[in-house]
Design a protein that fits this description.
Chain A has 113 residues and is an all-beta fold. Chain A contains no helices and twelve strands. In chain A, β5 and β6 form a beta hairpin. Chain A is globular and about 40 Å long. Chain A starts with a strand and ends with a strand. The chains are: A mainly beta (113), B mainly beta (116). The interface between A and B is medium-sized, with 21 and 23 residues.
């Protein structure tokens, strides 16, 4: 069965510091991986996705993620965090040939001034 | 990217009444739509998958008579919470995809339902 684990429930970083949010997945087939961001009371915004090809994926807002098959990971990174990045971040795994998308529990990011 | 519009964004209803939430794909044909429920500070839980013109497939533990889903056209799916109770208060999010497009599903902005 497919699953997504985000080990960190809450992370606090200082503005300007680097960020890495962890995501591990379990999936029986070739995974399609996503990172979404959600501000309070809002829907989901897609940050980036990995389907195939280059394992380092660039997304919006300066985010990037690296797919590591050997580690079953898809960690999200940003070199310098901005106060506006404070939000909830969700990793998700799915496939294009079926309708199932599973979400991790989310990581809440707090940015200190 | 493709746009999915969800309406209303917020709704308050009295216990025992029903409330309908709409999910529309604005610039593509949504052959499949998904309905999620999100509890406070929790992740998204898939409730059901609806395919245009057929009955929705509900996840285990989701009451199909409680959460009625209709996907009558390629651009509209509705979720009706029947005989709502305070425990139904939650954030409901839909997503839609075109099975013929090689892309992921696109999410609506969500609906905050409060049952008083």
């Amino acid at each position: 069965a497919q699953s997504v684990t985000q080990p960190d429930i809450h992370i606090t970083v200082s503005e300007g510091a680097s960020l890495e949010l962890r995501c591990n997945y379990s999936y029986g087939a070739t995974p399609y991986l996503f990172w979404y961001v959600q501000s309070p009371g809002q829907g989901l915004q897609l940050l980036l996705k990995y389907f195939s090809g280059d394992t380092l994926v660039q997304g919006i807002k300066g985010f990037e993620a690296e797919f590591k098959r050997s580690q079953s990971s898809f960690n999200l990174r940003k070199p310098s965090v901005h106060w506006s990045d404070a939000a909830e971040y969700f990793c998700a795994v799915g496939a294009l040939n079926n309708n199932d998308m599973r979400f991790g529990a989310g990581t809440r990011l707090t940015v200190k001034p | 990217g493709a746009v999915v519009s969800q309406h209303p964004s917020r709704v308050i209803c009295k216990s025992g009444t029903s409330v309908k939430i709409e999910c529309r794909s604005l610039d593509f044909q949504a052959t499949t739509m998904f309905w999620y429920r999100q509890f406070p500070k929790k992740s998204l839980m898939l409730m059901a998958t609806s395919n245009e013109g057929s009955k929705a497939t509900y996840e285990q533990g989701v009451e199909k008579d409680k959460f009625l889903i209709n996907h009558a056209s390629l651009t509209l799916s509705t979720l009706t919470v029947t005989s709502a109770h305070p425990e139904d208060s939650s954030f409901y999010i839909c997503s839609a995809r075109d099975i013929n497009m090689n892309t992921e599903a696109f999410f609506g902005q969500g609906t905050r339902l409060t049952v008083v």
